[in-house]
Amino acid sequence: MDDAHHAFTVTLPELRKYKTAGNISGPFFLLFWILLGFTEFGTTGIPSWLGFTVTGIVLALSTGFSIYGSRKRKQLAPVINRRFAEEFTARTGYEYPQDVDILSVKRTIAVRSLDGSVFLWGIRRAKDAVNVFPTT
What we know:
single chain; alpha+beta; four-stranded antiparallel β-sheet; 53% helix; rod-shaped
């Protein structure tokens, strides 16, 4: 193998923000269902109108965070893909395929060199980095 075929790690701090944006509404949605269950079936000693009001507020927060997370993920995806493509091209010398979304890649990326040969690169994602290694 030549120098272009070695394992490396691409650090992407935006990847952590991308994952957090997708998970932020989950706890509020769980809290909504817990509060709804207590309001409907529990004997909490509070008026039902107050329980439904609090439950509605939690549902509104969950919906708002879900919309925010979706927009944030759409905003971060092109940034992550562009930064990964730049780093991949700089480290390997291969042109990164423009139609490949690094966030949807499960295991490997096939890259074609200038002479027409294809080389496979393995992908392993971490919290804020992507490990790239040659496969045989």
